[in-house]
Amino acid sequence: MCEFAILYPGPYQYYITYKRYKKTATFSNRFNQTEVDDEEGEMERGNETCGMKPTISFPDLRTSTFEMETAKSEMYYFLAEPRLKIKGEVLEANGIVLKTMHPGWLGPLSNWDRHLKNTSKLGYNMVHYLPIQARGDSGSPYSIYDQMRISDELFSDLKKYPETNEKRYKMLKVVLDKMEQEHGMLGVTDIVWNHTANNTKWLEEHPEAGYNLKNSPHLRAANEIDAMLCKLSDGIENYGFGKNTIENEQDLDKLMEIIEREVIQGLNLWEFYVIDATGLLKEVQDYIDNEEKGGYGGSGTRIDNEAGKRHKECDHSLCQATNGSGKSELFTGSAEKDDIYVSRLGINSLIRESLSAWDVNELGRMVYRNGGKTVGSLDVDCLEVEDTFTDENAKLHNVPCMVAPIRAALPDAMFFDQTHDNETPSQKRTAEDALSNAAVVCMSVSSTGSVHGYDELYEKQHDIVHEKRKYFYHENPVDVGIGLAKKRLNLLHREIATFDEVFVSTDDDFIQVHRINPTTREGYLMVAQPAFRRNSNKESILSAPIKLYDCEAEHVMSYKLEIKNKENRNSDKYLTGLSSELIDLGPPYLKNNQDEKGSYVELRLPPGFGPGSFLIVKTVLTNFRLDLDWKIKSSAEVPFLCLDLAALNTVLYRCEVEEQDTVGIGSYNIPGVGPLSYCGYEGWMTHLRHIIPNNDLGHPLCNNLRDGNWALDYVVYRLQKYSVIYPKLSHLISWLTERFALIKNAPSLLVPKYFSMVIYFSYNEAKKRAINLMNPDFATVTGFRASLAMTSVQLVGYTPSASLLPNKEMKVPSMAAGLPHFASHHMRCWGRDIFISLDGLLLTTHRWEEAREHLLAFASVLHNGLIPNLLDSGRYPRYNARDATWFWIQAVQDYVRLSPEGTKFLSVNVRRRFPATEEYVDWNDDLAYSRSSTVADIVYEILQSHATGISFREFNAGHRLDEHMTDPGFNISIHVDWDNGLLFGGNIWNCGTWMDKMGSSENAKNRGVPSTPRDGAAIEIVALLFNCLRWVSTLSAENSKDFPYTGVHVPFSALGESPLLKTCSSSQSIDHTDDQKLFLVDFGSWADLILSSFEKHFWIPINPKKDQRYSVDTSHVLRRGIYRDTFGSAVPGADYCFRPNLVVAMVISPRLFITKHARYCLSQVRRLLQGPLGMRTLDPLHPNYNPNYNNDDNSSNPLLANGANYHNGPEWLWQTGFYLRALIKFFNSNTDEIISTFYDVIHKSAFRLNDYISNKSSYRGLTELTNIDGSECVFSNPTQAWSSASILALLRDIDTFVLEYDIKLP
What we know:
Strand 12, helix 9 (311-318) and strand 13 form a beta-alpha-beta unit. 33% of the residues lie in helices and 17% in strands. The protein is of the alpha+beta class. It has an 8-stranded parallel barrel with strand order 7-8-11-12-13-14-18-19. It has a 7-stranded mixed beta sheet with strand order 15-21-22-23-30-25-27, covered by helices on one side. Strands 24-29-28 form a 3-stranded antiparallel beta sheet, with no helix packed on it. It has 37 helices and 51 strands.
């Protein structure tokens, strides 16, 4: 938020300056291959079988230099309205009631005062007078002879005209001052920019100001056509026309053919569409009309026929006019062009005319469009926030205030019943319509205008050039025409200037306009029957009585106009109107009544109400609390002060599956929209984020709120159900119940507004409380980081079917892998997902207790050396994941490093779900939870089990456990190859890593065939193992009390030719256990063995001649200069897939990678695998690449059927965080490189992710995956734990890096 002072009214423009790379800056053409392999490589090869390749790619990273430039954003505009005053009192813009008067028809200045006095008597407070400068030969007030001189006719009654303009101005000023001080009216005059008299001396002095082919070259085409037509006319006798005239249609057709052939075709007019734009902008900017003049002591200007002028010229001319009110007559025919003129020039209102409406519906549309807000509008009320401001000029510092965003709005209107240059009601509709039309205009939320003669009922429009008669002076103007009604309407319009809410309704021949004060809720309802020609003699009745709910009504006025004589009373000297009678119809029928919607006042029209009639009643709400706005906002924070994050999860979130699982109810269903994404506040906010800023009261949710109180009751009812689990919710329930009871007493039109306010303010306080319960550094965060932090609250909650522990009495919240698909039962808690997510969602947010509970819950069910893939509350966990165990150890390591508990956590005792025999017993068996181990014991048990080898068959193997898996897939096997220290596992029939899609289509014959088995040594598992070994090696040396282990015991026979045998020292003695020789492999030696072999087994060199240095089968290589995905897979070619799993390995164990190789590979990742939001899960070059995931695909294609391509192209978000973190680790050799990486890659990626979570996600999270180029995938979880978690971890790493290296990011 920025502050700047508004010193004067008028148009303001603003923009934001920022730093960016110069657009001329060059990118390196990838990394120089000689830096990596010293020799040129070969082109990549592959099969283009997919037919669908990504179109979005990112340029390679800058690695040496960068150059920044200052740029600025798009220009934005807003308008500061002037504060007009009459005799020191503020005149509201919507309280202006203006009358246009012709100076020539007023007579000399000495005659003006009595006409101005009469104008004041009719309730007008502003007078618009046509140009008063000296006129040219035509006599038109818009054809000016001398722009600087007041016309002689204003002084025609004097013996001698005032000699100087100064004297003339002074005489005019006396009249205008009296007009304000005695009659209470301000003045407005015209500025005429594009008219001047043909005989003006000024034009002789400045011929360049007239249109000619030099200053207006765009007229050249017209000039040439005119010349050719003249030439054609001169020789017309040569074309065989009798008497050289057009006598019939055949002659006309013949002439048109001649013109087409000899004029149009001969001129090559298409050439005029080819322009030279050089210097065009400068020409426009340099063009200044020096003869513009306006003001004359008045309070505003009217710009005549603005559409004919260029706004840059006008902008220059108005830049000094900062204290008046600008009106403009635009004929652009485009709302977009209108907006340009208004925003650039500071035009306060555009002139609109009600008589241009052709029927009742169009008239109603004009009233609604010309100003005001819908009844119950909720834009400002719900968007304002508390803040402070400083005004150095006023010596004010940090003054508390409320800040609301500026909402884009249509240009204000000055709504005329008739303008001076258009036809009268008698000409356009009927004379009787003058009354009803005036009433409609009076009720518009805008300034209003009329023309002298409208109230007197002039029969026709008078020619402002040739009409020489004067206005007739009436002793009492109230008694003439519609004078009395117009006076009352004008005074009412001024009274209700702040009644800026409006409801407009049309019903056949009737129009209703209801103006309401948004604070007091008082209102005025007008009902009119316009007298269009088609219905002027028609007897009409309302289709149904008008019902005014929850209010009282009081009659204000009712009138009908009767024309006595349709012909005007002619006068040679004065302008007069039609003979008429204004009939007071008396009060309408008003009766209190009641129906199923509540009490109401029934309004029926009074007798005699017909075309041209109107009535107005005053409305006042009954049983309405005037301070309801304040009441709703008051104490909104108090109910949350006692709530913890688990309770806040129920208040804010809970998808339908969680809700049904916990309290047995579903999501609220909005008719026409469907169920809410969340049952809590966030579900409502998904829609309110659109409704509030756009004031979209026509949204289906608003309709539902007006129709009944179901939504209000639902909000309270669900919390009441949860209060059994969280008793402290009772405070919030009481707070909501009190406010909803008040809202239920309000009119139904206001319910959307007040419901929105309750949810909005309560939601914000709930979020504040949640943020304050997390990391103290988050206390002031907003925007992207706050949104990500709130996903921690969103995804961690109590669900009875998926508690962390099997005993349902222990209500322990658990983390959902994603919502809504992974919300309950055994599908909620996934081992790998939770421990990939734990760092970001629970550790960066300082949710130490929740992190601890998850670590211990999974530790308790360790079985056969494995952490389960699916927890199922510990009841029937499933162990079909090779990676979950290592992500658990990584999470333990992170928790020990970051939490206050530190290494003491390793000594915590854990009750074990399974006995030491590893027998798979039921969770409530006596053997279950009968033994304990420390966390350190469990870490060591994992290492020892993997070192020795793991081999078992899944419990309950068969179709009941997995309906798609084939029998061999249930066999779990993991071992270490001691020649290289790498961990191998799995087979071609199961999926042991996160890429776990199992084929399931009979039609495609891929049932039981894993799409991405990744058997062998997976690169991220190797990195996790290596990092674990280095960590426990350090623990063993430095914290032997907390971790009393030094290595693993390996059967001597398993070592074979292992390098460990050659490097063992005397300290690594050979033990004898049960006559079996065991070799003690210390953790550090195992880690060193992996380090020494990693590059050999995973790097694919650029130069194929170097393949012999690495374990590379050249026949399977598709892409070079990358790290392979696996090593030792039984699936031919699978090892050589280019996938983003390598970035996870780089973040976990950067030490494994040779820096220049890693940097080159990351450049490949950026170019080929990075998508707008997620990472492509397979190289687009690969024949199996298919980027669009469709789980409903029922084709016979085994690569696609039933979503078989889940991990073969779709773009997953969780690895984006790891990719960006890898950049930080490998692109930090100098400040230029760090800043370049941050701005060019990380900042832009974060911007796209922020846009997604803030504007595109209905679940307010980061999605699981997207289809090609970031396009939406409807089968994806809309919010996924590891997607948000990886970005939170990234932001933490950036903070740490910047602080550690003292980097100043510009």
